[in-house]
Recover the amino acids of this structure.
């Protein structure tokens, strides 16, 4: 969430909104959780996001996969349209 505030909300010339949602759900016969971090900030082009130079992002995904191998991590964003990070465990 720190990156959301620093890179998505702070550069805005207006008030931004950050929403965090968590829900439990069944998927494939197992209980799980969906965590979403959503902002209406400046957004960014996600092309090349899995580039190895994104050390922080790669560390988060690596730790997530180490702890929950079946987990899913998804970022959706586009310039001027905000960003959504979805983590399913």
């Amino acid at each position: 969430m720190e990156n959301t505030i620093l890179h998505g909300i702070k550069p805005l010339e207006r008030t931004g909104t950050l929403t965090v949602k968590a829900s439990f759900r069944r998927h494939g016969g197992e209980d799980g959780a969906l965590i979403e971090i959503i902002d209406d900030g400046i957004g960014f082009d996600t092309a090349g996001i899995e580039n190895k130079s994104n050390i922080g992002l790669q560390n988060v995904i690596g730790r997530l996969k180490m702890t929950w191998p079946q987990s899913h991590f998804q970022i959706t964003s586009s310039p001027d349209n905000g960003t959504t990070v979805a983590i399913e465990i």
Summary: The CA atoms of residues 12 and 42 lie 7 Å apart. The longest helix spans residues 55-67. The mean pLDDT is 88.
